[in-house]
Amino acid sequence: MISIINISKTYNGSEFPAVDNISLEVPKGEVFGLLGTNGAGKTTTFSMLCGMLKPDSGEIVIDKKNIRSDLNEIKKIIGVVPQDIALYPSLTATENLMFFGKMYGLGGKSLKTKIKDTLAVFGLAEHAHKKIINYSGGMKRRINLIAGILHNPKVLFLDEPAVGIDAHSRRDIMQHLKVLNQNNGTTIIYTSHYMEEAEKFCSQIAILSLGKIIAQGNPLDLIENYQCKNLEDVFFKISSNH
Ligand SMILES: Nc1ncnc2c1ncn2[C@@H]1O[C@H](COP(=O)(O)OP(=O)(O)OP(=O)(O)O)[C@@H](O)[C@H]1O
Ligand SMILES: [Mg+2]
Fold this sequence. Notes:
Elements: E1 2-9, E2 19-26, E3 31-35, H1 42-49, E4 57-62, E5 65-66, H2 71-77, E6 78-81, H3 93-103, H4 108-121, H5 137-149, E7 155-159, H6 167-184, E8 187-192, H7 195-201, E9 204-209, E10 212-217, H8 219-225, H9 231-239
Parallel strand pairs: 3-8, 3-9, 6-7, 7-8
Antiparallel strand pairs: 1-2, 1-4, 4-5, 9-10
Helix pairs in contact: 3-4, 3-5
The site of magnesium ion (MG) has 4 residues, from helix 1.
């Protein structure tokens, strides 16, 4: 579903590349985790994958379309959930979601029904007409996520979707994503620095360090290969060698 071929990015004025010659293949229906510490290059990779940032070199192909030549086509089939909350605080949750739905070309009664149903699935039915400014952090995260999935994207990109919220809400959000993946076959690419969460949630992961992939594979295989007790231990073991 996604091919990343030797992509690199050095920001203007920076001496070192933020992303340094990364290649990855993500099959359809995969939940793929891009993991790494602060500054590893996760958001830079994420931004290039959803067309917000141009790589200096390399190719990105999503659903057989090249991001350089077919970005408009790609935008129709991807959903993007950014690291920073991108909602209008003075509008209600429903008004925000109507805005995002229309941006994706949805509308009318079907959009209204979709918003109502999705808010209910995410436990926010009672808060549908409350302004975002009065939402808690965890509730805002959920609306941010719903905004990215209203149009049933084939591929969903999430940058730290559950950062800064309590463990309970975090598990809830990840559970909803898992259901989306299983019921709709949505391919999910998500960045995180929570190794424990990624171990449970991802079918494949890549660990980034200083813009390079230092390990890649199925979390359980990696744990076994590196003779560790969990993914966090694998991460510490590998990063101490880099
Ligand atoms: N707009 C920018 N201009 C210059 N350098 C940047 C810019 N954005 C990121 N960088 C640098 O690129 C590197 C990778 O940053 P990036 O934001 O991709 O990391 P990250 O893995 O997402 O980190 P975090 O976990 O903190 O979100 C870092 O060294 C960062 O300082
Ligand atoms: Mg980031």
